[in-house]
Prior knowledge:
This protein is α+β, with helices and mostly antiparallel strands. It has one domain (2-162). The chain contains four helices and eight strands. The chain has helices at residues 73-76, 81-89, 100-112, 148-162, and strands at 2-4, 24-31, 37-43, 55-63, 78-80, 116-121, 127-132, 137-142. The strands form three sheets. It has a three-stranded antiparallel beta sheet with strand order 3-2-4.
Amino acid sequence: MELTLHPIATKCFVSGRDFAENDRVASYLVREATGEVARRDLLESEDGRFMPPAFIYCRWVVGFKQRKAEEDPARMLKLTAENLFLTLAAPEAEPSATNTPLLQFLALMLERKKLIKLRGYTEDGQRQIYEHMPTHQLYEVPVGDLNVEFFQKIQEHLGVLVGTPKAKVEAPAAAPVAS
């Protein structure tokens, strides 16, 4: 699963101020009222002034780093499911009820692809501990009830993010051949 998104902005969406090296930037993956999926980057200090659109898929905070001249911006446009999981599940990421269903779904998907492996549960049993196989880094994901309601709830949101499968077109019935 790949999502095509813009790389981190260079200016705050709320104030318009240029980001400086190491500024804490809150990034939102949102669905606008038009149905468009967009990324909104703003200074974490401006978070209270941000007027979010109709739906927020997830939110994360990172330290801003200036892009190097040799970096390929086209490569940065691809936000894979793995990258999104690593960003949302990072130990320094703030837990969020908004992010939890997406994080749980990404964990399920990446576990199936064998990119992460369940290693157990936290002592309180509230979070699953996953190991990211390429880096051997451990990540904690809140335990969830992955029932029918969960998948129905997340299905619409995922459809907007990654597109819905095209319906199969049935071939028209052959016309009878006249003799």
